[in-house]
């Protein structure tokens, strides 16, 4: 059975959403009809947003609502923890949802106090316009954008399992997640431990294989909420969840700050899965590789040098460049081949690099983008 792609965004049955913006702030709400079994994966940065700390503490309670703001990270201020609590308290007072069942997320500039007056005003506006249509999901996705250029949503149905999602992220993207938020909801009837294990596995194959610029945010968060309305096989849910998280990771990579090209790196024929993962991430994270792809330069030595930081490269490796309709073997059994077709492929907007080590049976894929002068401009001016 194939996945059926839905057009609902995060608004699958029994979930509602809303999003509003002003000049500097945005605010998204996601509400469930009931308290959900909940799982989460959070930044490994030792500096953490007050919003993230509050949400992580409440995870075991299960969530019925998510309130997420853009424009301010609510991090590295004296009041960040109390401000996050105050935001959830304000929402709790205006709904029938308990404060301890509200997740709080923030994204934006670090070190500036959260404008609580503005957040409360936006929250009131968002509550007035809450709804369950695809348009409401899109508004929520747009509300959490910062340097993103487009909203990110994905939803599907598989064997009766429905999963909806929205995400944001365009910069500060490195393995172990990045300045990214992802909110995922489902009808799958699984307990909290099962959801957490499934989410960990899915994140490992998707967001933890995503690199834009090697920076690690204070606010990274992926939340998974289930209203447990549909009994299912956990293996079917795992398959569907991984499809969702990989598609979200690709959307983030394609919207990388200043990027002109989307890149996938597949390392195959590895002796272990972990070695393949490390090599793929090393290549996708290499600024030299990113710059070469931006310049449409098939300098394959940079790819091998990057992978070689993590794994031993055998003498007789193969290396390919691939686009939607073209494929070029630029190195065969360790020997360079004609690069003319590779140059044509690198003119495309979506490029895949395939490194075959030919020493085993394991593979891994990483997601990213090129590095352009526009990236420097965006981040030089971000304030």
Shape: globular
Helix content: 25-40%
CATH class of the largest domain: Alpha Beta
Poorly predicted regions: 172-178
Measured between the Cα atoms of the first and last residue, the distance is 48 Å
Describe the protein's architecture and organization.
The strands form 2 sheets. Strands 1, 2, 3, 4, 5, 6, 7, 8 and 10 form a 9-stranded mixed β-sheet that branches. A 7-stranded mixed β-sheet has the order 9-16-11-15-12-13-14, with helices on both faces. Residues 172-178 have low confidence and may be disordered. The chain has helices spanning 50-58, 80-93, 116-128, 134-143, 192-205, 234-254, 273-285, 287-294, 300-308, 340-345, 373-381; strands at 4-5, 15-21, 26-42, 63-72, 102-109, 152-158, 161-168, 181-188, 210-211, 221-230, 262-270, 318-322, 327-332, 335-336, 350-356, 362-369. Helix 1 (50-58) packs across helix 2 (80-93) and helix 2 packs parallel to helix 3. The longest helix is centred in the middle third of the chain and has 21 residues, at 234-254. By secondary structure, the chain is of the alpha+beta class. The protein has 2 domains: 4-254, 4-Layer Sandwich (L-amino peptidase D-ALA esterase/amidase), CATH 3.60.70.12; 262-381, Ubiquitin-like (UB roll), CATH 3.10.20.
């Amino acid at each position: 059975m194939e996945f059926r792609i839905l057009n609902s965004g995060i608004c699958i049955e029994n979930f509602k959403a809303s999003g509003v913006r002003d000049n500097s702030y945005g605010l998204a709400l996601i509400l469930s009809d009931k308290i959900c079994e909940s799982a989460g994966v959070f930044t490994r940065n030792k500096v953490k947003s007050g919003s993230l700390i509050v949400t992580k503490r409440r995870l075991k309670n299960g969530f019925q609502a998510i309130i997420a703001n853009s424009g301010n990270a609510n991090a590295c201020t004296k009041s960040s923890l109390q401000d996050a609590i105050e935001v959830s308290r304000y929402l709790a007072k205006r709904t029938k949802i308990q404060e301890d069942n509200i997740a709080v997320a923030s994204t934006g500039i670090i070190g500036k106090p959260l404008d609580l007056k503005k957040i409360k005003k936006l929250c009131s506006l968002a509550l007035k316009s809450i709804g369950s249509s695809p348009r409401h999901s899109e508004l929520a996705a747009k509300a959490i954008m910062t340097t993103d250029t487009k909203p990110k949503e994905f939803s599907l149905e598989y064997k009766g399992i429905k999963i909806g999602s929205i995400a944001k992220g365009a910069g500060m993207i490195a393995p172990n997640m990045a300045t990214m938020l992802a909110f995922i909801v489902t009808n799958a009837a699984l307990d909290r431990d099962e959801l957490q294990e499934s989410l960990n596995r899915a994140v490992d194959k998707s967001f933890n294989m995503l690199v834009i610029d090697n920076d690690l945010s204070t606010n990274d968060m992926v939340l998974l909420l289930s209203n447990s309305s549909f009994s299912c096989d956990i293996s079917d849910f795992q398959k569907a969840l991984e499809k969702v998280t990989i598609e979200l990771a690709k959307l983030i990579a394609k919207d990388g700050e200043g990027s002109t090209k989307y890149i996938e790196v597949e390392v195959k024929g590895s002796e272990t899965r972990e070695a393949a993962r490390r090599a793929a991430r090393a290549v996708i994270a290499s600024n030299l590789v990113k710059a070469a792809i931006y310049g449409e330069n098939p300098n394959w030595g940079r790819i091998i040098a990057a992978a070689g930081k993590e794994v031993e490269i055998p003498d007789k490796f193969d290396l390919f460049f691939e686009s939607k309709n073209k494929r070029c073997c630029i190195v065969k059994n360790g020997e360079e081949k004609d690069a003319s077709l590779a140059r044509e492929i690198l003119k495309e907007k979506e490029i895949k690099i395939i490194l075959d080590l030919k020493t085993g049976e394991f593979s891994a894929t990483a997601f990213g983008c090129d590095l352009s002068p526009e990236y420097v401009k965006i981040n030089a001016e971000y304030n």
